[in-house]
Amino acid sequence: MLTGLKEHSMSVDRLTTKPIKGAAAASAVSKAFLAAACVGVLFWAIFNDRLIATPGLEWLPRIKLRMEFNSISFMLLFVPCTVALYALSRGTRIANWVLALASLQLGLLCTFKYAGWLSGEFNGLFATLGLGIAITQIALPLPPGISFYTFHTISYTADIYQRKFKPTGAFVDYVTFVSFFPQLIAGPIARASELLPQVAARRPAVSPEQCERAFTLIAWGLFKKTCIADNLGLIVSQTGAALQQSNTDGLGYIYMYTFAAQIYCDFSAYTDIARGLAKLFGLELTRNFLTPYLSKSPSDFWQRWHISLSRWLRDYLYIPLGGNHRGRLITLRNLAITMFLGGLWHGAGVGFIVWGLYHGLLLILYRLLPVDRLLQDRFGRLGSLLAIVLMFNLVCVGWIFFRATSAEILPLFSSLAALPSLAQHGMLLWGLTLFGIPLVVTELLAYRRNVEFVDLLDGLSWPARAVLYVTLFYGILFFAARSQNEFIYFQF
Q1: pTM of the full structure
Q2: Residue 98 to residue 20: CA distance in whole angstroms
Q3: Number of DSSP helices (H) and strands (E) in the chain, helices first
Q4: Nearest CA among 340, 337, 338 for reference residue 357
Q5: Could you give the CA distance from residue 335 to residue 343 in angstroms, rounded to a whole number?
Q6: What is the rounded average pLDDT for all residues in the chain?
Q7: Fewer CB within 10 Å, N- or C-terminus of the chain?
Q8: Using CA atoms, how far apart are residues 286 and 141, in angstroms rounded to an integer?
Q9: Alpha helices, DSSP H only, in 144-191?
Q10: Residue in 38, 451, 431 with CA at minimum distance from that of residue 261
Q11: Which of 351, 341, 342 minimizes the C-alpha distance to 401?
Q12: What is the distance between the alpha carbons of residues 18 and 100, in angstroms, rounded to a whole number?
């Protein structure tokens, strides 16, 4: 009888293991098919023009990847560097080679991002000096996300070199970390120690609660981008055009306040969408903003604005330069260098460099004279409010350098001598008020809890969340800007 039971149990085991093996085989086949399809689409996109020009293949759809994902230079330079960096980082005796390869990638970033701008600037300088020298204008296609991609690889290399992090995961995990698509174009900048273990680990299926949280982040991000940021962008452009009129009094105020709201909503919207998409994969991306315009000092601002970049600059630039441990003068020098390079990272242009140096100057001034503490000690809670208002206006002045063209900067600063006229610029003021009020209200509500506004939505009852989702949907439907507007940080 016992023998019969054993034979029966063995036959049951065979029956139960066969479907499991069959499911695993089906999963492997589907993965292989999808991988082959992705590779096929990639090469189709790269050689699309040649394929369509081939007789008999005119029927193929035309594909043009606007952001140069089909950059041959990117495929031939950065992809081999990625493979080599992964291979070298697995060893322990070739740290210098790892650093050399990371330096090569940083050099490639500088070449792709700044070579064209520098060649144009040098040609202009030589023409001004009458030297009769001309440099061939360099025009290289800028691969998308090149800055964030390079920062990821550098942080990975530096952490391993300093023994802060050990290489983990397979090659596919490393490539996924470096090129994770939701945050590749505009951040947040991921740390290997934070994201790579999540990628390498076996994750459970995404729960309905996680899906709802992801949907909330994506919906809120889309609303901020299409309804607030894009509409404010139209006002910024109209304000710049109004500088050609005879009465420009106060236009600088409209310009800097509107762009301050635009770039914040635009950038934070991308971060919200990226975090929401990552949640659908069971991954958590770092927070990148925390009510930055309610900061009391420059250091407080950079702990709330583009937090992942601030951490990166602190850990891989400011601290290696010496941080604040080598005396006051060295500390001030390190602040200036860090912010100069932070401004240059944002783009090839004098305006970005001036913007970075401007924020470096603010950090130095507040380090020498802590205005926020003086105001709070003198006036208490009113002093805190005054410190916030002062810092907000200082940040907004800096946005003029960031956004305006060289021809607009002087008229904009000249217009700050007077307040804007309601009779002359009423429509611009009305637009700023209409699209700025939702931002002001949500930021004040979030600031009281020291969170982002989207975090407050988790505490709402399901009827309140349902009303909110419907409001966001119809807000996007009726108030979204009707023009195509890329995210501002796509260019960086």
Answers
A1: 0.79
A2: 43
A3: 21, 0
A4: 340
A5: 12
A6: 80
A7: N
A8: 30
A9: 146-161, 171-178, 181-184
A10: 431
A11: 351
A12: 51
**pLDDT tens readout for residues 296-347:** 999 999 999 999 999 989 988 898 888 888 888 889 999 999 999 888 888 7
Lowest mean pLDDT among 33-42, 202-211, 229-238: 33-42
Nearest to 283 by CA among 220, 204, 171, 186: 204
How far is 390 from 297, CA to CA, in rounded Å? 9
State the Cα torsion 94-99-103-105 to the nearest 10°: 70
Rg (CA), the chain: 27
Long-range contacts of residues 451-459, Cβ cutoff 8 Å, at least 24 apart: 451/290, 452/287, 452/289, 452/290, 452/291, 453/220, 454/216, 454/217, 454/220, 454/272, 457/216, 457/220, 458/213, 458/216
What's the pLDDT band for 15 if we cut at 50, 70, 90?
very low
Task: Find where tokens 């940083």 sit.
Answer: 106
Q: Are 186 and 270 in contact (CB under 8 A)?
A: yes
Question: How far apart are the C-alpha atoms of 395 and 145, rounded to whole Å?
Answer: 26
The single-letter code of the amino acid at 286 is T
Question: Span 388-396, mean pLDDT?
Answer: 96
| Maximum separation of any 2 CA atoms in the chain, in Å | 106
What is the rounded CA–CA span in Å between residue 178 and residue 197? 13
Positions marked catalytic: 346
Distance (Å, whole) CA 235 – CA 233:
5
State pLDDT tens for residues 202-230. Answer: 888 888 888 888 999 999 999 999 999 99
How many angstroms separate the CA atoms of 374 and 450, rounded?
23
- List the domain boundaries for the chain: 21-64, 72-200, 208-297+370-491
Report d(CA 63, CA 93) in Å as an integer: 45
**Which three-class secondary structure state does DSSP give residue 167?**
coil
If we measure between CA atoms, which residue out of 231, 297, 224, 277 comes closest to residue 452?
A: 224
Distance CA 70, CA 144 (A): 10
Across 438-462, average pLDDT: 89
